[in-house]
Amino acid sequence: MTIARLSDLADKTACPRLVVKVGSSLLVGAGGVRRKWLEGLVAEIAAARTRGQDVIVVSSGAIALGAAKLGLDKGGRGSLADAQAAAAVGQIALSGLWAELLGKHDLTAAQLLLTLEDLEDRRRYLNATATLTRLLDAGAVPVINENDSVATQEIRFGDNDRLAARVAQAAGASAVLLLSDVDGLFDRNPAEAGASLLPQVQGITAEIHAMADGGSASGMGSGGMTSKLQAAEIAERAGIALAIANGTPNAPIARALEQGVGTLFLPRRKAGARKAWLGGRLRLKGTLVIDDGAARALAHGGSLLAAGITTVEGVFQRGDAVAIQEPTGRTIAHGLSEYDASECSTLKGRQSAEHAALLGYAPRSAVVHRDQMVLL
Cα(366)–Cα(338) distance, rounded to whole angstroms? Predict the structure, then answer.
C-alpha cells in the first residue's frame, strides 16, 4: 500500500515510519515554550506509536530557547556567534523538554545532533542510518536537530525542513510531515485575494517553485516555502511522500490528516539508496557544464564522457560529488567524478582515444559513470 492522501500518514500499513518536523515558531511563542500545545503534539505522537508507527521528531527551537535564557536580541540570530551560543544553551532545555513530555507516555526520547557533513559524507550517513535503525528497533523516539553550536554559515543545513528530508532518507521513512505556520503550498502568496491551497502535488516543477515565498512568516525560524519545496525534492528522490501542514492549532496532526488540510507531495520515482543519498546532497564540490548532446545521452541512461564537457568549475578530487549542468545553467544531475578538477579540465571536449596520451596513464571509461550518477 502506498501513500495517496494525507490521511494515509496515519495508516501504519501505508506509513510505517513517519518523520515529524516542528518549527521554532510553533514550539516557542512570545511568552516562552508553548507547553500546552507541545503536550498535545506529544500525545499525537504517542497515539501514532500506539497504532504501530515509528516516529522520528526533527525539532527546531534550541536557538530561540537559548536566546531567551541569555537575553540575546533578534532571537539569537543577530550573528553566527550569537546563534552558536544560544544553541548550546537552548539544546539542553529543548532535549529535556521532549524527554519529559514523551516520558509521560512511557516513551524514551533519544537526542541526535547532526551537522551537514554527517549526512553528506557517505560513511557518516550510513552510521546515522545504523543509529536511527537501532533506536527505533529499541522503541525510542529519536529527537533530532542540527548541531547549531558548531555549524558555520558555509557548512550547515540552515533549516530543519531539508534536514528532516535527509533524516527520512537515512531512516527509510515512508513520509515526512512538516508542521509550519502555514496551511501548505498556495498557488500564490496566501495573503493575496483568491489564493488557493494546493491539496496535492506530484513532482516539483519550475512552476511549483515559482509559487514559493522565500521568507519565514514568523520571522523566528530559518525556513520558508522555498526550503520546504527543496525538502520535497530530496524526499521524492527516495520515494518518500512529504506533507506541509499548519501546526499552529491544537492537535495539529489530527487537523491536517483527518480534515485533509495541507499539501501532500507525492514522489514520481524511487532511486536506489545510494542514488537517493547522492541526489539529496546539498553541498557539491564542483560543476561540470555539458553540451546538448551529452545532456541527451544522460537522459537516455548514458554516462558522462569528457567529449561532452564544455566547462569545469570548482576544486574537487576523484570521488567528490559534482553538479552536472546543461548549457542553460540548469542542474540536471549529481554524480561522483572519476577524475579531479585539473584532469577534467585537461580532458574536456576531447575524444576518449586521446585520453591516454593527455593523462599519461590508461583512462577510465567515463568522467562520471551512470552507476555513480542520479538525474534530477
Answer: 7
The per-residue pLDDT for 152 is 66
Q: Which of 309, 312, 373, 305 is nearest to 342 (CA)?
A: 312
Q: Which cell goes with 358?
A: 593527455
First to last CA, the chain: 26
Block means of pLDDT (10 residues each) for the chain, length 376 residues?
92 97 89 92 98 96 91 87 91 96 98 92 92 97 92 69 94 96 87 88 86 52 76 91 95 94 88 81 91 95 96 94 94 94 95 91 89 90
Q: What per-residue confidence (pLDDT) applies to 217?
A: 45
Please state the pTM of the whole predicted model. Answer: 0.83
Residue with cell 584532469: 343
CATH of domain 284-375: 2.30.130.10
Cell of 281: 546532497
Sign of the four-CA dihedral 110, 115, 119, 122: negative
Contacts of 322 (CB under 8 A, 6+ apart): 284, 285, 286, 287, 288, 314, 316, 334, 335, 336, 337, 368
Name which CATH class applies to 6-277: alpha beta
DSSP helix/strand/coil, 165: helix
Using CA atoms, how far apart are residues 57 and 231, in angstroms rounded to an integer? 15
Residues of each domain in the chain carrying CATH 3.40.1160.10 = 6-277
Write the CB contacts of 164 (distance below 8 Å, at least 6 apart in sequence).
Answer: 19, 21, 58, 176, 178, 231
**Residue closest to 101 by CA, chosen among 40, 23, 29, 32:** 40
Match 531539508 to its residue by C-alpha cell: 162
Element (H, E) at 112: strand 109-114
Do residues 260 and 6 touch, judged by C-beta distance below 8 A? yes
